[in-house]
Amino acid sequence: MPNANHTFGCLSAHRAALMGAAMLMVILFHVGGMRHDTVFYCISRCGNVGVDVFLFLSGIGLWFSWGKVMKAHQGLRHAGKASAFARLLGSPYATFLRRRYARVYPAWLVIACLYYFPSYLDGKAKLSDTVLSVAVNWGFWHHDELTFWFIPAIMMLYTVAPAYMELVRRHAEWRWMPVAAMLLCVLVQYWPPLHSAVGHLEIFFSRIPIFLIGINAGAWVAGGKPISRHGWWLLAALFAMSALACVNFEDGLRGRFPLFIERMAYIPLTVSMSLLLCLLLGRAPRLVSRSLAFVGGISLEMYLIHAEYVLKPLKQLHLGYWPTALVVVGASAILAWVLHKVVNFSFKKSSSTLSSPSPALPRGERAGRGEAGRAGQSPTDEGTGSGGEADKQ
Questions:
Q1: Which of 122, 249, 321, 333 is the most buried (most CB within 10 A)?
Q2: pLDDT value, residue 272
């Protein structure tokens, strides 16, 4: 049996640590700095690829999650009669979405209310706009408001993912869909009717390919597909080439090309970097992997907190790049851990109350609710280990 670190299964074994590494990349990207002509400035700007790592791992997790839901549904298919409404609520799709949303919405609602309602109370926003912003971050879809943009993006991807996974499960040819998604990015940029309608959502459309590739990779992770020595050399070459391309893009070229082009270079960078990081984590001291896994476990909360509530006020102190980055990581981690614990405790308590026996609830409608208690781990999903999503910036 091959070593797990030399198979695609390493993405499962090191999932939480990879999430933590991705969160640190995103923070370094947001801290920015005044190093426009240095190599490190270019590398930190490439930290935006942390978003793609979250989406790649999220896609993998969804493959596992959908498989579990479908397997459970097969076992319950003949478990007695139920009303049409009860069947709808208990359908695989409804169960899948309920569990996915339960992992993101509790923490999101706390932060969204703190962020959007003060504007309404000050008379700067309408109540309808505020409610829509809290519910689905309507500003992102309407006019490309990038504050917390990852939340509505990952919610939309959750919503459509089951259709793609079923297509792939039934017809293997649909695994080529990421190529069509890349072509869609070109059309969004250059076909006038589409560009005028959704061109402001480039940041969303250009991340669809890596998300679908993650779903495709889920089958390889589940099967423990081995990676040969030649495969590792190819991954190293892909990493070097894509990293060089991205650094070059950031070295004075930003603003001179459509952003989706760089995000296409993020695709091989994401896949190769994730697998190579697994190789390094397999040899790293336990403290390193555990520290990254801790950050990965609260990555959703760190994403929601770090930019608006830590970095923005901290930048006024002009501490410099590295002191700012270190303070942002430390302060965000503490606040995120507290939010994670509070939300988890509150959600588990409400879930246990809702799932307690009651004559108003028919038997069967209470099944499966206990899993919602594991919500809020990050923008990603269950299936391949601890930690999870983030799916973050």
A1: 333
A2: 97
pLDDT tens digits, 303-323: 999 999 999 999 899 888 889
Bridge partners (DSSP) listed for residue 7 = 226
What is the C-alpha separation between 190 and 193, in angstroms, rounded?
9
Going by C-alpha positions, the residue among 72, 123, 124 that lies closest to residue 94 is 72
Task: Provide mean pLDDT across the span 184-208.
Answer: 96
Q: Could you tell me the pTM of the whole model?
A: 0.86
Q: Which amino acid is at 299?
A: S
| Planar angle of CA 150, 282, 280, nearest 5 degrees | 70
Q: What are phi and psi of 9, to 5 degrees?
A: -65, -15
Cβ neighbours for 304, distance < 8 A, ≥ 6 positions apart: 107, 108, 111, 148, 151, 336, 339
Mean pLDDT value across residues 111-121: 94
Per the CB < 8 A criterion, the answer to whether 15 and 385 are in contact is yes
C-alpha neighbours within 13 Å on the C-beta side of residue 385: 21
DSSP letters for 178-236: HHHHHHHHHHHHH-HHHHHHHGGGHHHHTTHHHHHHHHHHHHHHHHT-B--HHHHHHHH
Residue 184: count of CB within 10 angstroms of its CB = 19
Supply the pLDDT for residue 250.
Answer: 83
Tens digits of residue pLDDT in 84-107:
666 667 788 999 999 999 999 999
Where is pLDDT greater, at 370 or 281?
A: 281
Which residue is associated with the tokens 């809702």? Answer: 354
Distances, alpha carbon 166 to alpha carbons 96, 171, 211, 216, 335, in Å:
13, 8, 15, 12, 39
